[in-house]
Structures are given as C-alpha cells and as structure tokens.
Design a protein that fits this description.
Chain lengths: 538, 307
C-alpha cells in the first residue's frame, strides 16, 4: 500500500513539476512572473531600408540593428551609457584619444570572438567611399582622425584614426577634442560587422542564413514588406540574462490598421493614429503612452529673401505663434511648446533663460505687432508669404493654425504651399521658399547634434543663417570640458536672431501592451534593445 | 492566328522599349533624387553614392546601360531605397504573392460576377434583379480602401475569426480578407456588364428565332446567348486581370501581404528608380500579353472576328 501511495505521490509531483505553473519563471530583478511565450511582436511603419549597420539610415532599421549587432556601448532605459562590447573606456586628458577595453567573452553568432579588429574594419568601411554609406558623414562629425579626407577620397581608409592595439583593445584618435565621444558610439553606424561574412556573401550577407551578428538576436526570417523575425543568439555574451526569445517586426503601413491589429492582439506595440491620443488615453490609459523625444519641430525663415532678412520680421512672426495652442490643442499628445531649438531634456543641456519665453502670449503678440510695424508692415501694407510644408495632415493643420494666428494678430497674408516629400526637400534646399516647416531629431544625446545645424557652413542650415559669433561659439565648444556654457549662449543668439521659430518638442505616442515591460520610457533617444524587454504572465 | 500572335509579339518589343525610355525620362525629370533626405548628404558622400548607383553618368548612358542589363542579363539593378535588395529579388518575392491572391480574387470575381449578371438578366425587372443590381452598385461604390477596414472591423475585431493582416506564406486564413477586399468591386462591375450585355443578347433576333423553334430555354442560354453576351466582359477582363495580379496598393499596404502592388506608389514617392522601372516593365509586359490573350479569346468566342 505504501509503495502505491508513494508512486501516486511521485506521479502527482512529477505532473505538477511539468505543469507551466511549476516552471513559471520570474524576472530576476523585479520578481514578476514571466509569460511562457516570450515573443515580442511589433509594428513597423515601413519596410526598413537596410540591415547593414554601415548602410542604415532609418530609425526603425536602427532598432532592428541594435538587436542583431552590439556596439562598443549600450544605453539603459534612461539613456545612460552602459558597457556593450567595451567593458570600460578611458580618454586622454585632452579628450583627443580614447581607448576602449573590449570584453573577451563577446562572440559572433557563428561562435567566433568579437575583436577590436572587427571595429576597425567596420569604421573604415563606414568612411570608405566604396561603401557609399549615407551615414559616412557621421564618422566625420565624430572627428575621427582623417575621416573627412577618406570620405572625400583623398586618403586611404587604412589611415583612419582607429587602431586595434591587440584583440581586445581599441584606440581611437580624434582630430579635435570630443568629451562626449563615447555617447556617439552608441550609434548603429559604428557597430562592428564580420569581415569574413561580408567578403564571402557580398551584398547578400544580410540575408537570413548568411548574416552573422554579435547582438542578442539572429535574423531567422525576412519577407520584404511583410515581416522579419529574429531569435535568441546562443553565443551572445549575456544570453542568460535575455528574456525575450523571439522578436517579430510586422510591416503595417496604415496606422489605423496597425492599431486595429494591436487591439486584436496581433502586435504588442504600435504608434497611436494621428489625432487619437487623447481619446485612446481615456479609453485605455494603461496601454496608451507618450514619451518625450530628442526632436524639435520648427519653421525656417529664408534669410536670403526679403523681408525675412529683417530680424524684426522674423521675431514678429515667431512671437505671434501661440505654441501652447499647437502643442496642447492641435496635437495634444505629449508634445511641449518649444522656445529653444535643443530639447530641454537633452543630456547636460542647460536651457537659457529667455525673456520672450517668460512673457504671456498677449505680451508676445503686442511685441510682434510693434516689431512688424517697425519693419514697415501694416494692415494697409500687409506682409505676404507662403508656408512650405510636405504632405501630412499634421503639418497642414499646424500651417493653417499659424497662418490664422499671423492673420488675426498681425494682418499677415499667409498662403499654404504643400509639396510631396522629395520635391519639398529639393525646394527647401535651394532655398526657394519664404517660410518652411522642418523637424530635426538628434543623432546622439548632446546639444551639438542640434546646434551645429545652424552653423554657417552646415548643409542642413536651411534658413541660411550666418553669424560668425555663433560659429565661433560652436567651434570652441568641441574642445571644452563642459561645452554646455557655449550651447546656452548659442541658443541665446538663436533667440535674438530668430533664423528659425522653434514650435514644439516631439513626443512619441505609442500603444503598448500592458504585459510588455522594460520599455525605455525615459530614454529620450528611444533606443530600444529587445534584450531588455520582457513579457509578464497574463 | 499564329501570324497574328507573331505580329503582336513583334510590336510588343518596340512598345516595351518606348515604355522603358519614356518612363526613364519622366522619372528622372521629377524633382528630388533617391538620396535626398531631411539630412542632406555632404557633397563628397552624395557623389560616392551616385557613383555607386551609376547616377553620375549622363542620362543617355544610364538608359543604355539599363536596357543592356535588362535585355542581356535580365538584371533590373539594385533597389535604391532597400539597400540590401535588388529589384529581381523584390519582384521574385512579391509577385507570387500578388499573383496568388490576385488570381483567386479574379476567378472569384469572374465566376460570381458572371453568375449574378446572368441571373439578374434572366430575372429582369424582378425583385431578384433589383436586389442583385443593388448589391452590384454597393460593391462598385465601396472602394477597397473602405472595404478593407470594414472587413477587419467585422472579421478580426468583432468576430475574431480571421487575422487582420500578414501573409504567413499564403495560408488560407491570411488570404481571405485580401481576396474579398480586392474582388468585391471587380465582381460588381463584371455583374453589371454581364447583365447589360445578356439583356441585349436576349432581345436579339437570333434568340427570338431559337425560342420560336421551341428550343429549351437553358439550351438557348448556354448554347446561343452566353458566348456573345460575354464579349464585353472579355474585353474588360484583360486589363482587370493585369490590375489584379500585379496587386493593389491598398490591399498590400492594409493587409501587409508583402506583394508588389505597394511598390507602384512607394517606389515613385521614394524615387526608387530601379524598382519603379521594374514594376513598370512588368505591368507593361503583362498588359501587352493579356491584351493578346483577350484578342485570341475574342476570335474564339466570335468566329466572325478575323485578324
């Protein structure tokens, strides 16, 4: 009898141990119970442009690349730098050279070790004109020695200021001091690639089965305009700490359809359809989120064209824009009014104390009227202008609102000029416009990623602002231990000269499953690493 | 007939060449380049990229090189937008998808549309006729960009029967909604064309004669009326088949099928020259091919037609 009882008891225990409850894992830090199925499925707005770290341009493609490859550094959920392939790094006192000490347990997905030589190869590849990388300018702004000369074909890629001292030590030499250099190597264009694989497969090296990466995941499936799948890389050095097993990116162009599929449980994360944030926040607050982004929406004034070469006109037009109305009522999804170009949440940035920001909108409107009158415009002699924007409902709504504000407050006759994306870019670049919309997102979390745009010789300076004092401040900032003093002054010059009218700082609005945890809500760059996410039991 | 087919093929080659050259010139005349972006590239970088894609050469050299590559190696070049893909791969992956759901939608639209059309014609001015006509009008005025979200609302969100998108290698449950969204308006058009044509034929003298001879009604319909009634339908089918099997921008975009339909618009907006040329040539070649097929079917249906 005893034997029978013991056998039955053993059977019950065995069955219990095999049941999901008995095997339910818990998150090692939070203690939350984890779901048995750790598949994270999300929506991509458009097919990604590339999976090759040195050829990627788009933000969505960078998210994928952060799963498939790992750079020298990573970021945590707050955007702070964390060791990646590099365990630690040191700078010389003049911030002209950096040494990265690489971990010895980092491996490629074929089991080969990741070495400093892989980074040297990738960085030279980024600068090499033969690669024709659309981001080769990034290694120029990183100021790696000889980068510019290599990109323009004047020097050989082998002369780039990056060297493998040994397999696990990487030295970088810069052409000018860059205290924030380590922040820049979180960018996907600097991620290592496997030379042997690229040489073996050529352009096909990014195809599933061919691709070898060093990230937490490997590419297992790729169907253009439908889906891509990445699954756990057993060779990833921190694979034991990775919880998500599989990541599926679904291409869904239509944002309303994407939201429908979110509601149907087909995707765990998507973007909120335009204009629906407030409604969805009320209906489903737990799964409707807004996060600040490292981006600014602004209007350019074409300073090569009268009367926009007159600072009074530019100031008047900028002052008369009621930013709160645009950010809170027209958009209303977490965007914030902008009075400076650099988003205030940018790491280390000290926002200047600007007099016009502290005025009430009524006071700003009054000042705007006075300035425009001084410039010679009145209701009898109205200022006429056209607002150029690219096709988008939001750009249109904002342009209509601003043109109405200008009309009512200043008597300005503003017409709207809508062009499709590529034609708009071409027109803006010429520049053949009066006032044009623009948006800018930082490539790294530091104010210079915004402020260098307004330097006289910068190709992205669409308003054609030229101020030697501004240029000098920005040039000087690159060598400073704390460049934020100069950044604050530079913003003050922009507020005075008003080549652009900052309008709002972006927010990213997402619908995200309440069961998906670890999302980097406080990372203003929104750099997502699937290895840091997890799905709780539900 | 063989002479006719050969003649048509001989004309097809210069037609395609003209299509390639004209499309190429129009495409390059559009403002903006494949590589213009919010972050303009430094001149040296832009020059490197243009050199890689051969855009640094004069336009006539680019056209010559393009045609040579297409004709001699069937190489449509690399995609400018999707840097890891070439156009041959994009078409090879996407076309079978659109061909599959497009063909099913086509035959569904044809069979149901013709059946409804004949039924309505036979029941002319009855409640059955009015209700099928009503159905056809609703089907025609509901474009697929309206139809698609309604289908998702009903079958995915409310009933939970079918997935709202994806393709998954063409499994049946993923194909149902794209097929219905694509087929509906074509089905309605075919029904209306068939009905009108059938009514016209039924009132013709030879049908009256057949009836006077006491032939069974079913025999008259299938033996005498159907073939001439289908002539206008057949002329509609050629371009319709091409439009359906090359995919729909809306269906591809809404249901994420991975088909090539989406490239027709996206490649133009992205100035992805090579993809735009690839899908244009595919569409042109299929249009010529199916116009020929329609002409052959015409001759089969109506032996009086001679070429």
């Amino acid at each position: 009898m005893k034997v029978i009882t013991k056998t039955i008891a053993a059977g019950i225990i065995s069955v219990a141990m095999l049941s999901p409850m008995a095997y339910a894992k818990k998150h090692p830090i939070t203690g939350e119970e984890l779901a048995a199925n750790q598949t994270y499925t999300y929506r991509l707005l458009d097919e990604i442009d590339s999976l090759d770290p040195q050829l990627i341009e788009g933000v969505d493609a960078s998210h994928v690349a952060r799963d498939l490859f790992e750079g020298l550094v990573n970021q945590d959920t707050d955007g702070n730098l964390m060791p990646g392939v590099a365990q630690r790094w040191v700078a010389t006192p003049d911030n002209m050279s950096f040494r990265f000490y690489l971990r010895q347990n980092a491996k490629w997905s074929n089991g080969d070790p990741v070495t400093a030589h892989d980074f040297v190869y990738a960085w030279r590849r980024l600068a090499d004109p033969a690669t024709a990388s659309p981001y080769s300018w990034f290694i120029e702004i990183m100021n790696v020695e000889n980068a510019s000369a290599i990109v323009s074909g004047e020097k050989e890629p082998s002369t780039l200021g990056v060297k493998a001292v040994d397999d696990y030590t990487l030295d970088v030499k810069l052409s000018q001091p860059m205290p924030y250099f380590p922040k820049m190597v979180a960018h996907t264009s600097t991620f290592p690639v496997n030379q042997k694989v690229i040489e073996k497969f050529g352009a096909d090296w990014t195809k599933p089965g061919n691709m070898v990466g060093n990230g937490a995941y490997v590419l297992t499936e790729y169907v253009v305009n439908e889906r891509s799948v990445r699954e756990r890389n057993k060779y990833y050095w921190n694979n034991d700490a990775t919880i998500i097993d599989k990541v599926v990116a679904m291409v869904i162009n239509d944002e309303n359809q994407a939201y429908a599929r979110f509601k149907a449980g087909e995707v765990m994360k998507t973007d909120i359809p335009a204009g629906q944030f407030q409604r969805l926040l009320k209906e489903n607050p737990e799964e409707t989120k807004s996060m600040p982004q490292l981006c600014t929406y602004y209007y350019n004034f074409n300073m090569t064209r009268a009367p926009f070469d007159d600072v009074r006109v530019r100031q008047a037009l900028s002052y008369a824009i009621d930013r709160d109305v645009i950010a809170e009522r027209i958009l209303g999804a977490g965007q914030t009014s902008a009075y400076v170009f650099t988003p205030p949440k940018t790491n280390g940035f000290v926002t200047p104390d600007l007099a016009w920001e502290h005025m009430t909108q009524k006071e700003r409107d009054q000042k705007a009227k006075e300035l425009l009158a001084e410039a010679g415009f009145s209701k009898a002699n109205p200022l006429k202008l056209a607002i150029l924007y690219n096709t988008s409902e939001d750009h249109k709504k904002i342009a209509i609102a601003i043109s109405q504000m200008w009309k009512q407050k200043l008597g300005v006759d503003a017409s709207l000029e809508n062009l499709e994306w590529k034609t708009y870019l071409e027109t803006k670049k010429l520049p053949d416009y009066d006032v044009s919309r623009a948006g800018w997102c930082g490539d790294y979390n530091e104010a210079s990623t915004f402020l260098t745009l307004m330097m006289s010789d910068n190709a992205q300076n669409d308003s054609k602002y030229k101020n030697p004092q501004y240029d000098a401040l920005m040039k000087e900032s690159t060598g400073m231990a704390d460049p934020n003093v100069n950044y604050t002054q530079a913003e003050q010059l922009l507020a005075r000269d008003m080549p652009i009218a900052p309008i709002y700082h972006y927010a990213e609005d997402i619908a995200i499953s309440k069961y998906l945890k670890g999302w980097p809500y406080n990372n203003i760059e929104q750099n997502i690493y699937s290895k840091d996410l997890y799905i709780i039991a539900h | 007939m063989i002479n006719f087919i050969l003649r048509r093929l001989m004309v097809a080659i210069p037609t395609l060449l003209v299509l390639i050259v004209v499309s190429f010139l129009i495409m390059h005349a559009a403002p903006g380049s494949p590589f213009s972006s919010e972050k303009p590239l430094p001149p040296a970088v832009k020059a490197n990229i243009e050199k890689k894609y051969g855009l640094d050469k004069p336009l006539y050299v680019q056209i010559t090189n393009y045609i040579t590559n297409v004709v001699t190696r069937f190489d449509f070049g690399p995609s400018f937008r999707y840097k890891d893909q070439n156009v041959n791969d994009l078409i090879a992956e996407g076309f079978p998808v659109t061909l599959k759901y497009g063909s099913i939608a086509f035959f569904l639209a044809l069979i149901i549309g013709v059946s409804i059309g004949i039924f309505a014609a036979l029941k002319q001015n009855s409640w059955q006729d009015y209700s099928t006509q009503g159905f056809a009008i609703v089907g025609q005025v509901l474009p697929n960009f309206v139809m698609a979200p309604i289908l998702v609302l009903v079958f995915t969100l409310t009933l939970g029967w079918l997935p709202g998108g994806g393709w998954e290698g063409g499994q049946l449950k993923f194909m149902v909604l794209p097929v219905i969204a694509l087929a509906t308006s074509y089905m309605a058009s075919i029904a209306r064309i068939t009905r009108s044509s059938m009514i016209e034929v039924l009132h013709s003298n030879f049908i009256r004669t057949a009836r006077a001879k006491g032939l069974p009604f079913r025999y008259i319909i299938f033996r005498h009326a159907l073939k001439p009634a289908l002539l206008p339908v057949v002329s509609y089918l050629g371009p319709t088949f091409v439009a359906m099997v090359t995919g729909s921008v809306i269906v591809d975009s809404f249901f994420s099928t991975g088909g090539i339909g989406i490239h027709f618009v996206n490649s133009a907006l992205n100035r992805d020259y090579s993809v735009l040329m690839g899908v244009t040539i595919l569409l042109g070649a299929l249009t010529i091919l199916f116009s020929t097929v329609v002409d052959i079917m015409y001759a089969w249906i109506d032996p009086k037609i001679r070429y």
